[in-house]
């Protein structure tokens, strides 16, 4: 039965991954995510249902449009597959629980931002607001104290990232962080404190604050190789930081990372 649910969750992830491709591409271009239906960007051929089966349609069609034979970007099926894997991994770790819901929220936000930020250097406000509201609502429904805590630390991480952006702008004399990255940190703050129901416990507060600082540090470490490659290969100093912020948050959430415990071990 466990394997059955794992497969079902994986399939749902594939299907949602296909939708997240649409969201990540259309919203930055001010297009509706509902109409028109999916189409080939080259010949405008409206895709049939059997051309929209996640991953499978891509393989059957050898990565080409069925009508004009134009190559379809490998990015599409990879996003679908990534979403399916992250959903299945979340279920494997948490089962059906509040943590599972939060984990797939982070994973969903991550894949959308990968599409939008890597392609357009944009993290749509509509997406950030939607996922932030969903995160807080899930937690308020499951545990009111946790929901309030998530809002508090969401605000804290937003302000922390805002201060870092101001300092970075003054040091580098140019934009060091995008506004979308700063807004994104509110969502990150809401999800990194899910398992802490006590709002004002000294140890809990210290742990949450340290987790926030570590999340920024980890996301910077994850982004560093990409930044160096981008700088030396294209001489482009602008990198999509959003995906690395969310990847760091997902890693910490899936591993139940606790900064205080980690420091005690080392």
The N- to C-terminal Cα distance equals: 40 Å
Average pLDDT works out at 84
Share in β-strands = under 5%
Shape: globular
Q: Please give the number of β-strands.
A: 0
Order of helices and strands: HHHHHHHHHH
Q: What's the assembly state of these chains?
A: single chain
Low-pLDDT regions: 195-202
Main sheet overview: none
**Which percent bin holds the helix content?**
55-70%
How many domains, as an integer?
A: 2
- Number of helical segments with 4 or more residues: 10
- How large, in whole angstroms, is the Cα Rg? 20 Å
Helical/strand content category: mainly alpha
Brief synopsis:
This protein is an all-alpha fold.
Can you walk me through this structure?
This protein is 70% helix and 0% strand. The chain is built from 10 helices and no strands. The protein has helices at residues 2-26, 56-60, 75-94, 98-120, 125-142, 144-172, 179-191, 202-234, 242-254, 259-265. Helix 5 (125-142) packs parallel to helix 7 and helix 7 runs parallel beside helix 9. The longest helix is centred in the last third of the chain and has 33 residues, at 202-234. Mean pLDDT is 84; it is low at 195-202.
């Amino acid at each position: 039965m466990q394997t059955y649910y794992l497969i079902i969750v994986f399939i749902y992830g594939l299907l949602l991954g296909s939708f997240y491709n649409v969201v990540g591409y259309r919203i930055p271009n001010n297009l509706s995510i509902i109409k028109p239906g999916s189409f080939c960007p080259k010949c405008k051929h409206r895709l049939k249902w059997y051309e929209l089966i996640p991953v499978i349609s891509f393989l059957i069609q050898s990565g080409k449009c069925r009508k004009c034979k134009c190559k379809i970007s490998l990015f599409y099926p990879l996003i679908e597959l990534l979403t399916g894997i992250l959903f299945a991994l979340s279920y494997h770790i948490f089962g059906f629980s509040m943590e599972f819901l939060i984990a797939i929220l982070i994973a969903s936000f991550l894949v959308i931002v990968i599409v939008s930020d890597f392609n357009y250097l944009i993290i749509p406000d509509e997406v950030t607001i939607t996922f932030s509201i969903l995160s807080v609502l899930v937690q308020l429904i499951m545990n009111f104290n946790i929901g309030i805590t998530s809002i508090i630390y969401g605000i804290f991480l937003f302000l922390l990232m805002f201060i870092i952006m101001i300092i970075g702008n003054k040091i580098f004399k140019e934009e060091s962080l995008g506004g979308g990255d700063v807004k994104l940190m509110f969502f990150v703050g809401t999800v990194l404190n899910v398992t802490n129901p006590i709002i004002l416990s000294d140890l809990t507060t210290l742990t949450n604050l340290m987790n926030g600082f570590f999340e920024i540090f980890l996301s910077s470490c994850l982004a560093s190789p990409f930044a160096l490659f981008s700088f030396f290969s294209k001489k482009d100093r602008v990198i999509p930081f959003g995906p690395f912020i969310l990847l760091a948050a997902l890693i910490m959430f899936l591993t139940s990372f606790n900064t205080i415990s980690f420091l005690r071990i080392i």
